[in-house]
Amino acid sequence: MERQPDMEMFDCVIRQLQDVDDVLLMEGHNKSHKKVSDALDLLNWAEDMLPSMALHCMATRHSTRRFKQEPVDVEKLRQVIEAGRQAPSGKNKQQNHFLVVRDPDVLDTLARLVREEFAGMEITDENSEDIGNAIRLSKKGTYVFHYHAPTLIIVANKRGYGNRYADTACAIENMMLAANALDLGSCWINQLRWLKDNPVLLDYLCELGMQEDEQVFGSLSLGYPDTEDGLPNRKILPIRGNEVTYIG
Q1: Among residues 241, 110, 40, 17, which one has the least CA distance to residue 118?
Q2: How open is the CA angle 83-85-90, to the nearest 5 degrees?
Q3: d(C-alpha 105, C-alpha 206), whole Å
Q4: How far is CA 58 from CA 139, 174, 177, 179, in A?
Q5: Of 119, 75, 107, nearest to 221 (Cα)?
Q6: Which one of 49, 65, 76, 156 has the fewest CB atoms closer than 10 angstroms to its CB?
Q7: How far apart are CA 234 and CA 248, in angstroms?
Q8: What is the pLDDT of residues 203-229, one digit of tens each?
Q9: Which of 178, 188, 157, 181 is nearest to 89 (CA)?
């Protein structure tokens, strides 16, 4: 059975190409041609496997809800955000606004405000399924909506814009896939979206840089998974829902 592509194999490609770069600087080395040929063969293999690697990344992406407190590497964070910025948007408007929160004090303040606002609500038949648990835990004083992740990426968009939810969702999915490819854990966070009209949260988010004509339509917890091997859960699970009907 052909081995499934993974980051180890990708790193191997990069190392080989770095070797090529070194070899080309060593004129007359009798193994140069073989090393160059081997590395180019590996590069061609990687190019052929790229579609499979992308599908494998999708199949192995799962939510992480326990994070180490180690800050996310700046370059990895940049790549995750860039993946979000590359996402499609309606009419190519590109008006998602990414607020990247890494300041522990700001994260604590957001957690406290969310907890206080939910604690002031009551569970009803209408909201039980969506925010019932958030209200319940907030009343106990134990609720931390972002799972203590060291980074929270908040995605805002324009109020009243017809594709605001779709554009935000595409960006967050791109970032979750990028996170998985980079050995980072992530989790979609809905709570700020549920409180998008709350005046307390709106005022604070505007203090952080959100524009007055914007609202939060999704956010993402990001960090290194607090697991034994430090990697996200990548077990491929069977899909039991999501019915498919082919027409034609």
Answers
A1: 110
A2: 120
A3: 16
A4: 36, 10, 6, 11
A5: 107
A6: 65
A7: 35
A8: 999 999 999 999 999 999 999 999 999
A9: 157
Residues 223, 107 contacting (CB under 8 angstroms): no
Cross-strand partners of 7:
none
Which among 186, 188, 185, 187 has a CA at the least distance from the CA of 231?
185
Quote the CA–CA distance of 79 and 7 in Å, as a whole number. Answer: 15
The structure tokens 């009243």 sit at 160
Alpha-carbon gap, residue 124 to 101, rounded angstroms: 32
> pLDDT tens, 93-140?
999 999 999 999 999 999 999 999 999 999 999 999 999 999 999 999
Could you tell me which of 158, 153, 37, 25 has the C-alpha nearest to residue 89? 158
Query: What residue type is 113 in one-letter code?
Result: L
- In this structure, are strands 97-101 and 185-189 parallel, antiparallel, or unpaired? unpaired
Both tokens of 228, joined, read 């034994």
**Rounded Cα distance, 20 and 26, in Å:** 10
Contact 97, 211 (CB under 8 A): yes
- Per DSSP, which regions of 89-224 are E strands? 97-101, 151-158, 185-189, 214-223
Burial of 5 (0-12, 13-18, 19+ CB in 10 A): buried
Q: Structure tokens of 30?
A: 């009798």
